[in-house]
Write a structure and sequence with these properties.
Layout: H1 4-84, H2 89-98, E1 107-113, E2 119-123, E3 126-130, H3 137-144, E4 152-153, E5 157-158, E6 165-174, E7 180-189, H4 190-204, E8 207-212, E9 217-221, H5 236-242, E10 247-253, E11 262-269, E12 275-282, H6 283-286, H7 288-331, H8 337-340, E13 346-351, E14 356-360, H9 362-368, H10 372-375, H11 380-383, H12 389-400, E15 408-413, E16 419-431, E17 434-443, H13 445-539, H14 545-585, E18 589-592, H15 593-609, E19 614-618, E20 624-627, H16 629-647, E21 655-664, E22 667-674, H17 681-685, H18 704-715, E23 719-724, E24 730-737
Parallel strand pairs: 19-21
Antiparallel strand pairs: 1-2, 1-7, 2-3, 4-6, 5-6, 6-7, 8-9, 8-12, 10-11, 11-12, 13-14, 13-17, 15-16, 16-17, 18-20, 21-22, 22-24, 23-24
Helix pairs in contact: 1-4, 1-7, 13-14, 13-15, 14-15, 14-16, 15-16, 16-18
């Protein structure tokens, strides 16, 4: 037999067990939170480090590419002149010395080294002078491997003239017959790198470095001379770095840092040059905030544990008092039985202090189906008598005020699960020193059910109408706000994409103009020299007929070349000006489709010709349109750009075709196609989706074709269809009206 004492002891054991489980849960949760916080802290620092090394790598890559481009220009100029006549080492040296480097902020000097190892160096900062550089690893390697044609990054050194640190970039110099005639090198100012590296290091309290793949340190910031040209080949961490993917992170001590302690390193290998950008922060510094948060968590966990222990103690005291009250209740359970046992009205006795039942008359037992033993010592909640918890709270709220109630509506649940609804009356009576609650109940279930059903139906109808009205108003407001935001964002994205496309045209046309303008400068300088020679002969009375004849022939050929070059430059500039005006103004005007397409394709030529791609334009003259030439040109620009970036990836040459035909008196069909790699069906279906791109993280924004779709439909008033199969190229068809709809004048391109 389980006695009340045994029951109380078991309850105390359960409380102690519950407190112990809470303490264990607090310990486990605190450990998990600290571990997750550490992982997130390290992940966030790794992400920041990768962002930094990408920035440093891009800066180094662009600077070195500019240096290689300068070398290519010098080599090209030497090859051109050498094709006309064989140049001596002295002539090449003079040509290199005359090359202008003052336009560049990061190029310090230009050097020419003969195959025999004789070298000269020229710079805007100091006069041209001879200098032995054959001992340098980059020059020595190229002289030892004359068949190697790529640019080589050397080791940094301090300039003998002004002690500035520079990084040499070298490549083999060959004539037009591919015969090695020396080495050409350019010195890059390390201070150009160090400005960015120092700023990144200072802003992040980090150490940033640029390391060559042969193990030598090129640059480190904060700058310390002891790290310059330090060889890391013997460091096992450097071997680990070289064997892993293009970018990543690792923890190490005494790598690129002589200070004690472990650092978190992030790195990125350059895909064109044998260099690696490295970013390092001490773990002690990275985890400062994490340690602060950990101390706070531990303090909080200790406080919660202490509170749990205190609450457990309070609960045990409460259980002791409750057990004492139950004992007192059992001693006085027979006090009032005679007063109400035989009453025909359902009645029950209870203790208002804790809500437990003391006794019930026969009518109550018959109504609710509980035996007297089941009621005594239990509350209505324990018995499941309360049908509505809200009614129970309101009822006991009135009880605490000490009021006597008459005909108070309450719902109860019988033992068999039926709900009975009635009117309850209460009175407080004193039995000895104890205050007892007498509660009577009159059943009005059927009447209340009918009334509540009518009221419920009315309230439900009103609530439905009100809810639907609110939902509809809120949806309309959110929709209107979203539409405004989408339109604003769309307009901004269109403007950004247009400016990016126009910037690409500017760069391409500028590159294309270099050839005719360079030819013009070369011819002009040659004519100037021949005029000086002829004038000298005239002054010395030694001029002969053959000299004059030679001068006339050279002048005729030179002016012919000069006119062709200048006409080519004039044609390029004229086409670009018309296309640029169209794409920047978005003005509607009448134009000939063939003329606009030729101008657009002329300005795009530098983009595809440098990769040996070809664009064929088959647009007949005489197709007059009243539309937006800038919007149409932007579409064609996006088509060509997508072909170059996606369709011809990995191919040395590709073919593009732009055709136009009149479909009827009021419409024209423009078809653009390429023989590239094509698209899968899934990619074709999503090609017009905003921000969808197969080049995510590689320069693709995913906005080009979405903007084209909006231009065609909303500005030009036409339709666009894309057809593509993997391995069979892509075909884009535009069906446009010759006269754009008038509503397009308020297009988002404006």
């Amino acid at each position: 037999m389980i006695t009340p004492a045994h029951h109380g002891l078991a309850s105390r054991h359960l409380v102690v067990l519950a407190v112990a489980m809470v303490l264990v849960a607090i310990l486990v949760q605190t450990w998990w939170a600290v571990d997750q916080d550490y992982r997130q802290t390290m992940a966030a620092e790794t992400t920041n480090g990768l962002i930094a090394v990408r920035l440093l790598d891009e800066n180094a890559h662009q600077t070195l590419k500019d240096a290689v481009h300068t070398l290519d220009q010098v080599v090209h100029k030497v090859q051109q002149l050498n094709r006309e006549r064989a140049l001596s080492a002295e002539q090449i040296r003079k040509l290199v010395a005359e090359y202008d480097l003052s336009y560049s902020r990061h190029l310090k000097a230009l050097q020419y080294v003969t195959p025999e190892g004789q070298s000269w160096i020229s710079s805007p900062d100091y006069p041209t002078h001879a200098l032995s550089v054959a001992y340098r690893n980059d020059v020595f390697y190229l002289l030892s491997h004359p068949s190697y044609r790529e640019a080589v990054v050397g080791r940094p050194y301090a300039s003998n003239y002004d002690s500035q640190w520079v990084l040499p970039i070298s490549r083999t110099l060959v004539d037009h017959n591919d015969r090695v005639i020396g080495v050409i090198a350019v010195d890059v100012r390390l201070s150009y790198f160090s400005q960015l590296y120092a700023r990144v290091a200072a802003e992040n309290q980090a150490a940033v470095s640029l390391v060559a793949d042969d193990g030598h340190v090129i640059l480190r910031s904060p700058f310390e001379a002891r790290f310059m040209n330090r060889n890391l080949n013997e460091d096992p961490q450097f071997a680990h770095l070289q064997q892993h993917e293009r970018e990543g992170s690792f923890e190490a001590a005494l790598f690129l840092d002589d200070d004690p302690g472990t650092n978190l390193y992030t790195y990125r290998h350059n895909h064109d040059f044998a260099i690696t950008a490295v970013y390092a922060r001490p773990l002690e510094q990275v985890t400062v905030a994490w340690r602060e948060r950990t101390r706070g968590r531990l303090a909080l966990a200790f406080a919660i544990a202490a509170l749990a222990v205190l609450l457990g103690r309070v609960l045990l005291n409460f259980m002791d008092r409750l057990q004492a009250s139950q004992d007192s209740l059992r001693q006085s359970e027979q006090r009032f039985i005679i007063l109400f046992r035989q009453s025909p009205v359902s009645a029950i006795l209870g203790r208002p202090s804790d809500g437990t039942f003391l006794d019930a008359n026969d009518a109550w037992i018959e109504k609710f189906g509980y035996s007297l033993q089941e009621l005594q010592g239990h509350t209505g909640t324990q018995m499941g008598l309360w049908a509505e918890p809200a009614q129970r709270r309101a009822f006991f709220g009135r009880m605490t005020e000490g009021e006597a109630l008459d005909n108070y509506p309450l719902d109860f649940r019988t033992r068999d699960g039926r709900t009975v609804r009635g009117l309850t009356s209460t009175r407080f009576v004193m039995v000895g020193a104890e205050r007892i609650l007498l509660l009577t109940f009159i059943d009005i279930t059927e009447l209340r059910n009918a009334q509540d059903e009518i009221q419920r139906m009315n309230l439900e109808l009103e609530a439905r109408v009100e809810n639907r009205t609110k939902v509809l108003e809120q949806a309309n407001a959110e929709l209107a706000q979203a539409l405004v935001s989408v339109k604003a964002m769309q307009a901004e994205l269109v403007r950004s994409e247009k400016m990016a496309a126009l910037g690409s045209l500017v760069a391409g046309v500028a590159h294309e103009l270099n050839t005719p303008i360079g030819n013009s400068v070369t011819v002009a300088s040659t004519l100037q020299h021949q005029v000086e020679v002829l004038a000298q002969e005239m002054r010395s009375n030694t001029m002969r007929r053959s000299s004059l004849q030679s001068f006339v022939e050279a002048a005729s050929n030179g002016t012919d070349i000069l006119m062709r070059s200048l006409q080519r430059a004039d044609h390029l500039i004229g086409s670009f000006k018309r296309v640029a005006v169209d794409q920047s103004s978005d003005l509607r005007r009448n134009f000939d489709l063939a003329t606009v397409m030729e101008e657009v394709c002329t300005t795009l030529a530098p983009m595809y010709r440098k990769a040996q791609h070809d664009l064929v334009v088959e647009v007949p003259a005489g197709i007059e349109m009243d539309s937006f030439p800038g919007a149409l040109g932007q579409c064609v620009t996006n088509f060509v750009s997508n072909s170059l970036q996606h369709a011809f990836e990995g191919r040395s040459a590709g073919a593009m075709r732009l055709q136009a035909t009149l479909t009827d008196a009021g419409h024209v069909r423009i078809v653009y196609s390429d023989n590239g790699i094509g698209m899968s069906e899934n990619t074709r279906k999503r090609v017009f989706d905003p921000f969808f791109t197969t080049k995510l993280g590689q320069g693709g924004s995913g906005l080009g074709m979405n903007i084209v779709y909006n231009i065609v439909h909303e500005v030009l008033g036409g339709s666009i269809v894309v057809e593509s199969t993997l391995g069979e190229g892509t075909r884009i068809t535009l069906d446009l009206p010759l006269r754009a709809p008038s509503a397009a004048t308020e297009s988002p391109l404006v």
